[in-house]
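Quick question, first post here. What does this chain look like in 3D?
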Amino acid sequence: MKMFLISDNADALIGFRLAGVEGAVVHDRQKAEEELHKACNNPDIGIILITESLTEELEEEISKIRLDPKMPIVTTIPDRHGFRRDKDYITRNIKESIGIKI
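> Answer (accepted):
Ran it through. C-alpha cells below.
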C-alpha cells in the first residue's frame, strides 16, 4: 500500500518524496480534484494525504470518498501556515476510518 500527497506547496512534496511518498503539487481546485480522482482510481494507493487548504476546497468530494469503504483513506495534513484543526485530528480521523485505536 502506498501513500500519495496532494499539496499546494512544492516544499511539502519535496519533504515527502525524501520519505518515499509520491505526490502532486496543484494550485487550483480543478487540478486538485483531478489528482484526487486519479489517486482514488490507483489500486496501489491506500492513503491520500492532502493539505488543509486543499481539503477545504474539496470538502464535498472528500466526504464522499470517506464514506466509500473501497476508497483509500483520505487524511488532512497541515499546510505551510500550520494546522487550523485540533491537535488529535489525524489520529481521530484514522480511528474513524479504520476503527482501530492507535
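The chain has one domain: 2-98.
The helical segments are 10-18, 29-40, 52-57, 59-67, 89-98.
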